[in-house]
Amino acid sequence: MLAIDVSDLRKQFKVQKNREGLKGALKDLFKREHTEVAAVKDISFQIPQGEICGYIGENGAGKSTTIKMLTGILVPTSGKILVNGYVPYKEREEFVRGIGVVFGQRSQLWWDIGVIESFRLLRKVYRVSEADFRARLDELVETLQLQELLNRPVRKLSLGQRMRCELVAALLHQPSILFLDEPTIGLDIVVKTEIREFLKKLNREHGTTILLTTHDLQDIEALCSRVIMLDDGRIIYDGGLDELKDRWGKGREVQFQFNDPVAIADLSRLTEGLEVRWSKENELTAKVWIPRELNVSEVLSRVVGTKDISDIKIFETNTDEIVREIYQSGSAAAPVGSVSP
Amino acid sequence: MTSAYFDLIRIRFLMMLAYRVNYYSGIIIYAINIGAYYFTWKAIYGNAQTLAGFTVDQMTTYVAVSWMARAFYFNNLDREIANDIRDGSVAVQMTRPYNYLLVKMMQGFGEGLFRLTLFMFPGMVVVSLIFPVELPTDPLRWVLFFVMIWFSFLINSQLNILTGLFAFFVENNEGLMRMKRVAVDLLSGVVIPVAFFPFWARTVLEWTPFPAITYLPSSVFTGRMAGAEAWQALLVQAVWFAVLIVPILVMWRASRRRLFVQGG
Amino acid sequence: MSASKWAYNLSLFREYLGNYIKTRLTYRADFWVEVLSDLLFSAMNLVFIFVVFGHTPSLAGWSEAEVVFVYGYFMIPFGVFGTFFNLWNFSERYIVKGEMDRVLTRPAHSLVQIMLENVDPASLIGSLVGLAIMGSAWATLGLPFDWYDPLALLAMVIGSVLIYAGLYTALAAISFYSDAPTGIVPLMFNIQNYGRYPIQIYNKGIRFLLTWVLPFAFVGVYPASFFLDRHGDLEMSLLTPAVGVVVFAFGLFVWNRGVKRYRGAGS
Predict the structure, then answer these.
(1) What is the pLDDT of residues C30-47, one digit of tens each?
(2) Is the ipTM of this complex over 0.85?
(3) Whole-angstrom Cα distance, residue A165 to residue A199?
(4) What is the distance between the alpha carbons of residues C26 and B53, in angstroms, rounded to a whole number?
(5) Greatest CA span in chain B, whole angstroms?
(6) How is domain A2-246 classified at the architecture level of CATH?
């Protein structure tokens, strides 16, 4: 069954034009001019239940607008959305009972009082029974190790502690879909890892569908089996992370550590006939770039047999670079062309 | 540097222009206020010709001009400063190469200029058409009045800055700010001219800066104070302006110390 | 709204109130400053009345005690209103800072949530003071006390609260349409004052305005005159609850429209 089903979704905003200077401002006082701006341009995608999907794109690409439509905050201009079997904007109050939302930069907790008080309040808001609430809370507190924090006011929590509490707050009512908007923003690496582990566990044990937007591609690599990439309101890539790497990773790099000093010319001769590029790091270290079409082993066999080697490292192009590359070229369609995910 | 401050005035002026709902509703509400007080005072006068030395016509003019002056000197600097302090952006502001308080003053002045030109002038024309307002004929009185409401702006802004800075020392100065607003409206003479207060209250008020905000300029405008008395009123304003600089500097110093010690 | 929905909202209210009290206990000094400033605000209006009556024995035929009586009445609904509709910083907090998004991801009506998140029982002290002022003016005027007076008072107060609630809900909802940061709420604060003085002092235009457009006369002088036999205007007094229902329905309508607009559904 599909958790999220979106087709031809579009959102346009009316944007005020502010005319320049004093004269313009005076004119604006009496007559305003507006322009229509499309933030999301007829996108379609489906997410099956139990999937963790990363939703990435640059600022202003339309990520937040999409999330807001999926969570029932915004009403789309046109197109269809079905989340959890509901049309989010239609039966909002009924619908939101089945989803959890965390906005990374905004708190949903009561600022001045113990975290537990906020949780109790949310129990009431979502009409969770006391027994369910207890069981759920215990489980979450256990996995996220919040025992000591429960009675502390939110303003006295560190960002990492707060984010863990935000997750609990969003999950108390056992939502089957969790929306995360920049869940790891501003957190240190340890907390990031903890949160990723927690989300994986949640997905594994409860089958919770997770859709997250992020700028941190480590999040994507750690969590997502699938990425949807957005640029200027359009989906430019939708598919597995591995495929993305396969298609966009232009090749690999192998670094050799030799026991004796070597010369580039020497090495190039060894791999004659192959489309590779050598570069020297220092006296004993050299790197070779191997295009994707070529087998790494072919290069290795030629070098290993003749030279005395102490160490070999293989570098895969990382997601970061791939994504940067895609944005620079403007479209993911260009080099792939015929292949579809 | 000076040009940067002028730019602040200009920017705030343009900002005010951008919010047109505020503009239109402001006009309506000031008009209603003047109207309502006009009728209240008419009822208070009943058949009496003068009360506390004000004739009915002087009173009408007083009400109109006081509200118009309020449009000029009124600002929310206290709230803005308190918000800056609470969300910590004041620390950032202090790293900039300008004087934070002066910046706030300039912004308040931009707001005041906006209201003066687009609010007070058209408003005054409308009001003098509807109500029997007596405008002074002596050009000197006009000049004096504008100098005086400039001081009103300064003194009122100084009080706002003082109240706003309290946010450094208490967790929440919302109540204090509200009290200040109420006190200014009541004691400065917008709602009741100071002359109407009982003698003892008048004596106390003379030792506060409040009458300098509305009562003095409006009295000069209506001709209740003239000649030497008018110049004396201006002097009182100038003295209050100078006197209020002292607590502001003291508080500002203490605030900075607090900021550096506690890190905001 | 169905009965279960009422029960649900009521239980939410209990919970939010609990959190409010816990918050307040952390900032006790603020609580008293707030109460004090509320009372000072009322005191200012009373001072106005006293100063004015220092110069005239009556205002359009109303004596000092009668005007004070009206003011005392006014404070009661105003306090109740202040408790539940503490929407002064709605625009700043929910629109500019974006908390509205969070509200819209929760399964309760948006206005109910926002009312409850800002509940402010400190204002109720103003109601109590108002009741005391009204009581003492009642005694000064030697008004008769009928068995139905408390019930009438309750009905009037509910009506007046609904009028306030409706007007200010509509006003807060303007933030959905306009990007004004400070809003017009503080300015509006002035207009409501005029419903507290005998409506007879105003000219027709303002009287009409205060009765049918921004019916602030129904939060002060009309309902209070029910108890002041000399000025009794039974029709207008009895209209108070009805006007309350209408104005509140209007406010709710504007709010719902505003939320719809915020979510970008047509416009």
Answers:
(1) 777 778 877 887 888 888
(2) no
(3) 13
(4) 51
(5) 64
(6) 3-Layer(aba) Sandwich (3.40)
CA B258 to chain CA centroid, Å, is 29
Strand partners, A240: A226
Q: What is residue C265's predicted lDDT score, i.e. its pLDDT?
A: 65
Token pair in block for residue C145: 């006390």
Q: For chain C, say whether A333 makes contact (Cβ under 8 Å).
A: no
Q: Which residue of B has its CA nearest to A31?
A: B20
- Rounded Cα distance, B173 and B86, in Å: 10
Looking at beta carbons, which residues of chain C come within 8 Å of A76?
264
CB contact under 8 A, C47 and B186: yes
Residue of B nearest to C36 (CA): B175
Q: Report the predicted TM-score, pTM, of the whole model to 2 decimal places.
A: 0.78
Instruction: Give the residue extent of every domain in chain C.
Output: 3-262
Phi-psi region of A142 (alpha: psi -120 to 50; beta: other; left: phi over 0): alpha
Structure tokens at A163: 């984010």
DSSP letter at A72 equals: T
Average pLDDT along chain C: 85
**Contacts with C23 from chain A: Cβ below 8 Å:** 110, 112-113
Q: Do B174 and C34 touch (CB under 8 A)?
A: yes
Q: What is the pLDDT along chain A (341 residues), one digit of tens a residue?
A: 789 999 999 998 887 777 777 777 777 777 777 888 899 999 999 999 999 999 988 888 888 899 999 998 889 999 999 999 999 988 888 899 999 999 877 777 877 778 888 898 888 888 899 999 999 999 999 888 888 888 888 888 888 888 899 999 999 999 999 999 888 888 888 889 999 999 999 999 999 999 998 888 788 888 998 999 888 889 988 988 878 777 766 677 888 888 888 888 888 888 888 888 888 888 888 888 887 777 888 888 888 878 888 888 887 766 677 777 777 765 555 444 333 33
Say if the Cβ atoms of C105 and A99 lie within 8 Å: yes
**Reduced to 3 states, what is the DSSP secondary structure of residue A86?**
strand
- Contact between C129 and C42 under an 8 Å Cβ cutoff? The reply is yes
Length of chain A: 341
Which H or E element spans position B154?
A: helix B139-165
User: Which CATH superfamily is A251-316 part of?
Assistant: ACT-like. Chain A, domain 2 (3.30.70.1150)
| Residues A166 and A131 sit within 8 Å (Cβ to Cβ) | no
Q: How many angstroms separate the CA atoms of C215 and C224, rounded?
A: 14
Distance CA C221, CA C200 (A): 10
For the record, the structure tokens of C219 come out as 């939060």
Residue type, A132: D
Encode pLDDT of B160-208 as tens digits: 999 999 888 876 777 788 888 888 988 999 888 999 999 999 999 999 9
Helix (H) or strand (E) holding C264, with range, is none
Residues listed for chain B: 264
Test A73 with C105 for CB contact under 8 angstroms: yes
Spans of all domains in chain A: 2-246, 251-316
A314 beta partners: A254
Query: Parallel, antiparallel, or unpaired: how do β-strands A277-282 and A285-291 relate?
Result: antiparallel
Under DSSP, is residue A321 helix (H, G, I), strand (E, B) or coil? helix
- For residue B18, which residues of chain C lie inside 8 Å, CB to CB? 179
* Calpha distance A69→A10 (Å, rounded): 10
Question: How long, in residues, is chain C?
Answer: 267
R_g over Cα of chain B: 19
Residue A323's closest CA among A222, A218, A177, A225?
A218
